[in-house]
Design a protein that fits this description.
The chain is of the alpha+beta class. Among the domains are: 74-281, Histidine kinase-like ATPase, C-terminal domain (Heat Shock Protein 90, 2-Layer Sandwich); 343-474, Ribosomal Protein S5, domain 2 (2-Layer Sandwich); 511-591, Rossmann fold, CATH 3.40.50; 610-650 and 683-747, Heat shock protein 90, C-terminal domain (Four Helix Bundle (Hemerythrin (Met), subunit A), Up-down Bundle). The strands form four sheets. The chain has a nine-stranded mixed β-sheet with strand order 1-6-5-4-7-3-2-8-9, with helices on one face. Strands 16-15-18-17-20-19 form a six-stranded mixed β-sheet. Helix 7 runs antiparallel to helix 8 (184-194), helix 15 (478-499) packs across helix 20 (574-580) and helix 26 (709-725) packs across helix 27. The radius of gyration is 44 Å and the shape is elongated. Residues 289-324, 753-797 are annotated as: Disordered. Belongs to the heat shock protein 90 family. GO terms for molecular function: ATP binding; ATP hydrolysis activity; ATP-dependent protein folding chaperone; unfolded protein binding. It catalyses: ATP + H2O = ADP + phosphate + H(+). Residues 289-318, 754-790 have a biased composition (Acidic residues).
Amino acid sequence: RRLWIIGLICALLAFTSVKADDDVDIEGTVEEDLGKSRDGSRTDDEAVQREEEAIQLDGLNASQIKEIREKAEKHVFQAEVNRMMKLIINSLYKNKEIFLRELISNASDALDKIRLLSLTNEDALAGNEELIIKIKSDKEKNMLHITDTGIGMTKEELVKNLGTIAKSGTSEFLNKMTEVQDDSQSTSELIGQFGVGFYSAFLVADKVIVTSKHNNGTQHIWESDSNEFSVIEDPRGDTLGRGTTITLVMKEEASDYLELETIKNLVKKYSQFINFPIYVWTSKTETVEEPIEEEEAAEAEKEDATEDEAEVEEEEEDKDKPKTKKVEKTVWDWELMNDIKPIWQRHAKEVEEDEYKAFYKTFSRDTDEPMSHIHFTAEGEVTFKSILFVPASAPRGLFDEYGTKKNDFIKLFVRRVFITDDFHDMMPKYLNFVRGVVDSDDLPLNVSRETLQQHKLLKVIRKKLVRKTLDMIKKIAEEQYNDKFWKEFGTNIKLGVIEDHSNRTRLAKLLRFQTSHSETVLSSLEQYVERMKEKQDKIYFMAGTSRKEAESSPFVEKLLKKGHEVVYLTEPVDEYCIQALPEFEGKRFQNVAKEGVKFDESEKVKEKREALEKEFEPLTTWMKDRALKDKIEKAVLSQRLTNSPCALVASQYGWSGNMERIMKAQAYQTGKDISTNYYASQKKTLEINPKHPLIKEMLKRVNTDAEDQTTSDLAVVLFETSTMRSGYQLTDTKAYGDIIERMLRLSMNVDLSEQVEEELEEEAEEPAEDAEAEDEEEVQADDDAEEESDSTGKDEL
């Protein structure tokens, strides 16, 4: 009997176990704890397998959470990071959606790094060969997860990369942020440019958790609430294989960003041209076949029995098949968001204008639309496909460290695999504003960046890129070119004329300058040549600090009076640029501030000029040999002056006043450069205007008394004044001031020997303390005298 009871109990326990298993199977398509799965829930028959493949959300038990809180290393953010995060949050509160763009861009960068590393290290992808980005929303836990299988971060890198900012760019970023903090669009662009986009996560999150695994370290968890952060080794071990998961604990007001449609729209808006697949854990409704329960099957058989005998045979055949019915179910799976073929791989005619604009914004992280673009395929010695863009405005720090350290804005792909954008010679320095992609099948994949940079085919690619870029710039509409392109990149074109000998002629056609033809519209050299007078064989230009200074110079008086057009060079680089151009369309350039300006003259005019030269010979000789013998090379009659009495002219190979000013202002100028000292010490030619009344009067005085000191002083004053009007600096300002004072004394009939009246010095008053001391001494002396008198009187008595 006892054995029978034991057997009955075992049977009951077995029945209970089977029933429990049945319950589990019935609810097996839904798992309450999403954190235990890798892939989240899926409501189909492959739920368990799918969830094992998905992103692991947290999966931390109570003891592990306690361990993290107790053992995590606490850190304080760098002061600049705190300030920067506050600026970002305050400036972008109306444009919070950019956080997803920045986090996806960072994930893409991490994937680029591991893929590039895998070209030279076969084991780099051993932990996970997939290179993807996954985004998963968890409304119940109010979390958003962005996972990449990129290079990951070690513990040290988590602290360094997420807790500090490179000192070199911190102050500049903060200053720029302060300048544009009222403009959310400009601020969001700055965030991308300075590489601090990670911190935009705090726009929508109260807490940010970063789980990362690097091939050279263990998996760690970084956690922050924007005030401080902590780092600890992940107690779960290696759950990622390699890569990074960023978990955002969303703010209450940012719950919209957990909606699937919102996430999808943002990915398509900002990141559809990212070079790696982006998946979103999303749901869709599907119609599926499910087995019919036994009771439903019995009822179906009764109904079938009433049907015609012709259908009985067919039903007999279907009896062995399982009975099913169609039902609608919500199925969860990863949906690819960016399945568009790389835009540069498509034919230019197949690509819409809006697609180019969207692609540019995605890969350049620029919020503005490009000014121009060119899409082409190059064939020949090397075959490659490329899209190049001219941005709407000059990139930040365009001329910082120009000529030394410079990275191009060109991304190089080899067989659709991103290699690097850290090239220094893909484009010449003066085209450092051009952005674009280059994809070639002819370059090797498995070499280092340094080796690839020296590859001979890159020189061929560079040459073609420059030609295509100049073609693109040339096709920019004239109105847009003058108003936008030249304002942003005019200096680059001028530098190109100086540096790029092989493309100098092409670049010269892109130059624009102010001229005397128009006060508002810039002119090209082609337009200038078209407007030249019939017998004019030179292009006249005048350099100065501004248009006003250039057009009021004594050197342009005669030219403007005769109707000749003058080019005004108002930028420091302009004169260098023109010096690098020997000619343009057969016309040589003439600096009107130097020797060599000549006008076509008739025989009668020539005779008159020669007569004047003979008449004024005593004055020119006197100036050269006596009054200004240490200051000028020679004095001659001028053909270019009309209203001014004289001007100081440089030799054909000397420095103009503008060039001398620029050279002396160079930061590295020490005064020890032999060539610089040579040019600076060269004497100039003094050109005098024989029709000016002052010059005529000086001629009379020299003919009357060449030894007169006043006449000599007048000559020095004229020379020093013309020095300043010609753009040069005075070498002895004190001597010039003394002469001006002497001339003023003579004009006001003040005796030259009369001195400044000296101020009478008043007797200094005694200090109060000394006076009191003296009073006390006097009182004491009086007392002593009285005592002495009394004693004397007594003695006498």
